[in-house]
Amino acid sequence: SHLSIDETSLSHGELYTILTNKSAKGGKGCIVAIVAGTKAETVIEVLRKIPESLRKKVAEITLDMAGSMTMIAKRCFPRAVRVTDRFHVQRLAVEALQEIRIKHRWEALDQENDAIEQHEPGVYLFTRLMYFAFIRPGEILNLQFSHIHLREAYITVHGLISKNGKTATAQIIPALANELEGRLVFQKPEYYLFSTGIQPASIHFRSRNHSGVMKRLWSNWDC
Questions:
Q1: Where is the Transposase IS204/IS1001/IS1096/IS1165 DDE domain (predicted)?
Q2: What are the E-state strand segments in the chain?
């Protein structure tokens, strides 16, 4: 016969070990035993109440990769071939693949950031302001150098340029401060941080919407 053993939670987080007969295919005689708990010794004690002659007839038992399940299978069904449940194998494979995918994704993002920083520092600073200061693209385009307070480590987003019409401040973290410091050198307070060509100037870089802002920004990046 072919059996399966697994643990499940039936109610209120209580765990049970369930032994099923695969030959019954979910029909009558499918449930062989239900044992409260998952401790190997407890389950073994209950399953050994099944006559040894019947337990030795089990040719195969499917289980997960938990050490307790392996012990139960070896002690109670010594002649059965132990087969790892494919669900658990697939889950481990998918998790491993996901880890690799995330690792390569971060590496690709780092390479992209390095390329942007090297070839177009203006675009790089723009994205840093969105990422680190949580300032909207349209608001960033309205920022003037007088709005940047490096010593106090904050940026003023005036109500006249903010989306909700309310004046607010954004914190300047060290990673962003380093980028802004290089931008602020020899600039006039009334100049905008980003103007034509994503360079500081007195001319306001206008765009009607978010997508227009990003399209014009990236059109200036050619690396």
A1: 3-118
A2: 2-11, 14-21, 31-36, 60-63, 81-84, 148-149, 154-157, 168-171
- How far apart CA 37 and CA 9 sit, in angstroms, is 10
Boundaries of every domain in the chain: 2-84, 86-119, 120-215
Architecture category of domain 2-84 in CATH: 2-Layer Sandwich (3.30)
Say if CB 48 and CB 71 are below 8 A apart: no
Fold of domain 120-215: hpI Integrase; Chain A (1.10.443)
Q: How many CB atoms lie within 10 A of CB 50?
A: 15
What pTM does this model have?
0.48
With tokens 């035993």, the residue in question is 33
Own/partner pairs, 52-58, CB within 8 angstroms, 24+ separation: 57/1, 58/1, 58/2, 58/3
Given the structure tokens 């006039």, which residue do they identify? 188
- 30/21 Cα distance (integer angstroms): 5
Question: Strands 154-157 and 168-171, how do they pair?
Answer: antiparallel
